[in-house]
Amino acid sequence: MQKLIHSAIAAGLVFAVSACNLFLPVDPLPPVVSEVSVIQVVTSGATVSGTVRDPDGKNSRQDKKSGQITEYGFVYATRDKPTIEDGTALKIGNVVTTTPFQFQGQITGLNVVTTYFVRTYAKNEGGGVSYGVVASFKTDKYTVPLIQLGAITDVTKSSATVGVSFFDRLGTETISSFGVCYSSTNKTPTISDSKTEIGSNTSGANYTATMTGLTAGVTYYARAYAIYAGGITYSQTLTFTPGEPTVFTSKKSFTMYYSNPYDLDLGELVSQVGAEDLTWYPYNDKAGIYPKNGAKFAVLGQLTFDNVKYSDVTKAILTTDFINGSYTDANANKLPNGTVVAYITNQGRYGKMSIDAHGQDRVNASSSGGDMQVTILTYNK
Q: In the record, which residues are listed under signal peptide (predicted)?
């Protein structure tokens, strides 16, 4: 009996010790990172990419101890197998939301004609640090192609032509691609913006490129670019603004009479069904613009008619929705005097219309009023 008691006590002690071991510190499990890829090497830097994955836990305690990834990036040096302690760390980010997670980095400020070693690294909450396989690259000494942008010519409402020139020749460098990049928002456009590629290096020195898909009245920024073994070089920046298109119907004022249809291509009352772009204030309906045959409209607001540009019209959100113009329904009226309305006709022409004067709402069929004085200008396609 006494032996049984001693055995039970011993077993209990073993269990207690084992239970206590569950709460002892464990080594943090390092996150898993992949080998690095060197994408491009330039005179004093390189573009590199890597992949990071979540920790591959061995048990629940280890997972809990290791936690989430808190930092990842690249580490590089002129010696093999660089670490954060003896190399230069290029931190890319902190949070990895999905795995595997790919990332890129730009290493800059390197010495010319020097061999470097680089690899990925990642840290986690438990203090674990992991390194990927080492890759090496050697910077070179490149002759940067000199490229410039010439005069911008042949500007239309949606395109412009520009000259591109190389000068001081290229030495031994080979250009894989060159052309013009442009943007209406980026004042120093890059090849990530809109671009027109001219081709690869040839024996010539002067070229032209046509920028398309432009919007009239919008200011654009343009630079020539050349991609070569040492990286990408850009020219100076030029600005230009495509002109407004020619006018189909010049500025014209007239009265829209109660319950009549109007053609905004010509600015005239029409009787032929199918030619009208709107009906103003139909019988037994509230005052307003009723779009017809696919014509679309948008209220721009109370603006100076002559200051509204073609680009303001084309950027408006045009719809076939009814536009309330009732003065009786004052809170809902969208057409007070001085309002400018953008439109596109059923023939596909953009235009603008100002509300110059608005007649009173008709109280009944026998009452007068209900007319609206407007001014329009319709552009060519």
A: 1-19
